[in-house]
Amino acid sequence: MFYAERAMAPRSPAEEFRPHRAPWSLAARLTGWYVVSAFALVLIVTGGLYLALVNSLAQAEDEILLNKVHVLSNLLSAPQPDETVIAQEIGEDTNAPRRTYARVLSATGSVLRESPGMNAEVPFDLFASALHPSTADARGMTVHGPNGRPLRILSMFLHNTGVVTQTTIQVAADVTSDQMLLTRYRTDLAFALGIALLICGGAGYQIVHAGLRPVRLIAQAAEDIGASTLDRRLKVSGLPSELRSLAATFNAMLQRLDASFSRLRQFSDDIAHELRTPINRVLIANEVALGQARTSDEYRDVLASNVDACGRLSQMVQSLLFLARSEGPQSRIEREMTDLADELSALREFYEPLASEAGLELAVACDGGLMAQVDRSLLRRAIGNLITNSIAHTPRGHSISMLGKDEGVSMSIEVIDTGQGIGVEHLPHVFDRFYRADPNRSTSEGHLGLGLSIVKSIAALHGGSVEIESLVGQGTTVRIRLPKAV
Q: I need a labelling partner for 329 at 20 to 30 A (CA). Which of 80, 103, 208, 227 fits?
């Protein structure tokens, strides 16, 4: 209830005037998803390549630094270290583009040897955060010196290095060229990613545009279909499997609409034909009466004829209204528990005088205990229509029977006569509106051609069905099947 109250709450002025944002088209959504997924894949690949290059350069620098540590370790571990060679190793390549530095510390942290200018370029405190492993698989780290130049540094702790028992060797390499290479690589990657984004967008649009071509063809074909071209169908062959079922469903809907429009056109024609006769009758009778002076009895006859024609028109309109309402989705019936035997007996008592006047015998037979949840007035109307039809088409001296049968989960009501019967060619159409197996009978005789249509609608309202069997010269059986009361 709280949700319903919130849903019914009035919108604020800001919400009232907020512009409605149209949803994205399917093509835009698919293109966006394709671009995002494809570009994400390219981004992951290029990012992986960049990281691989970074790691490769770092490993190369670390190998250089470890090699320098290994050489210095061997020189310092000699029984009689050659100071000249050690000095050359520590101070080598001072003018090389890739400058390397080395520093040897004692166990107390005092500087024993270091490369010229190392204190200014690579201060001692840069190694404060560096590890001091003693293994050959040591990894360096990249830092920035006081002048902003990038350096790769490595610090290693050694034992028994000859004269000095414990020694720490700090080495560093200027990796400015590596950083410049990485900068150029990032620039190239950014350019490549921009081109890839454009390519992904263009390719995604073309792929989606080509993929949605069958949808556009279906839309164009559907746009050309109107009330006068409902016989057209969408071409199913050649469509993808996902759209083939959609097109088949659409074709089935068109077939149902075509059939409904055909019935509607036929129904309109039938109504116009059926209404024309009584209206023309009234019009001609009034024109004749007004053509010259008449006596009061003659005017009374004209009025009586008009009343009779208007009564038939009213009956026809009421029947049509009932059929229209019974087929509506909002149609409701008032059900009540009904004993079928009592209903059939009451109907026999009501129609007995009419049957006797026509020289017919009206009989009833019903299984005991048949109960149904039905609208009693509608059930009486349906069975009454069948009885009046049988009386109208059964010669004198014959009989009409009403039978109620238990059929397990359902029950049936049969109205059987031994009259004229109906031809086999007419049986599929007898429940159509305004259809008459005998075209010589007209509305002027009280036969509207709606009785069996009303019976069918009443049976459908109760969740049942109606069937007919007939042989010419032997009679007709109409069977209404209804669900039994639970």
A: 227
